[in-house]
Amino acid sequence: MPILNTLVARAKSNPKAIVLPEGQDPRVVVAANKAVEAGVVTRAVVLGTEEEIAAACAKAGVSERRFETLDYLASDLFPEFVNEFYEMRKAKGMTPEKAATTMRSRIYFGAMMCRRGLVAGLVAGSIASTADMLRAAFHCIGTAPGMKIASSCFVMDLKTPTASGDDVLLFADCGVNPNPDANQLVDIALATSATYRALLGRQPKVAFLSFSTRNSADHEILNKVKEAAALMKQRIESEKLDIVADGDVKTYEQLVAEFGKLPSGWLAFAPIVLPIILMGLASAFSMAGSNPPIIVFLGKWMLLLFVDAGETAIINSAYWYLVCSGLFMIPLTFVNVLRLTIQGMGYSRLALFAGVFEMIARGVVGLFLVPLFGFNAACFSGPIAWILADSFLIPMYYHVIHRAKRGEGIY
Known about the structure:
By secondary structure, the chain is an alpha/beta fold. It contains 16 helices and 11 strands. The chain has an 11-stranded mixed β-sheet, sandwiched between helices. Helix 4 packs across helix 5 and helix 14 runs antiparallel to helix 16. The radius of gyration is 28 Å and the shape is elongated. It starts with a helix and ends in a 6-residue tail after the last helix.
């Protein structure tokens, strides 16, 4: 079952109140209504002026509001939050004026609602940037008890379950700490393990990944990850934590080979190599989808939304299109070289016919294959066109060369 279905079921069993600060976004008011209707939350508080929310509802076609609205700038909470925020950060140069300006940000106001316990969590990011979300989280909420740094993770749904039946992985840290040291990697591991347990209710299995393993290379990035893996194992043993980790570093190939033996897992990455490993894992697990967004592990739950839930599908489709095209670069090279050679020898009409062959091939694919095979057929339209053009250009090339050798003129 997809992770979102699991989370919805768990949320329904113990619903809580949330705040959605971006009430000017039509998608937010629709989501707030649906969350309340589905019983996922007890209350959904949407921030914004009445004019903003009315306009969003009108655009979204929401006629009946099931959520609460709060004009945060006119709320009695606003001066309270300003004063509290000033007291929290005056040692770092905060002034009452700066505090008032900062609190005009709806993300900061929502984060203060979380801090006060007025809501259990905050969902935003459809308009606000990642930087805005993180600043508000750090300044208003801070890290959870026992955590020295905040971190984030991607929740990955595997389209093909592992041999042990698991279909969810957590990748960390993918959005907050660009270059953590060994001790910070351990904190990230512990935070993400707690997130895994909170989301799925299962024992976490930790694997530290890097570009090399089993002492096969000597590099500062690899050595840092090795140290973190060893420290993590020590921490688990000394604190008797219910987490599984073998204290070694793995490449994604090893993880794939061993995953059938693992009960569950999340992954910690060294910097720089994250995209390579993530791509390898996604391919190995039949293009896993990161359907849920980044979850930032802080003192309270904050969920960072991507602008469009279809972004992952778009990226995967673009990747597959590039792979299909890349595999057929040699036929494309022949097309360009042979066409230009034939044209350069004066046989422009033959070069033109090759283009006609390409257009015919693309038309056939579009009319007959795309309805049957969808996007995959579209991805191969180029390679099919190139191969068909080559089937015309290669014999024509030899024909032109033979004519030139015989001294025959251009026709």
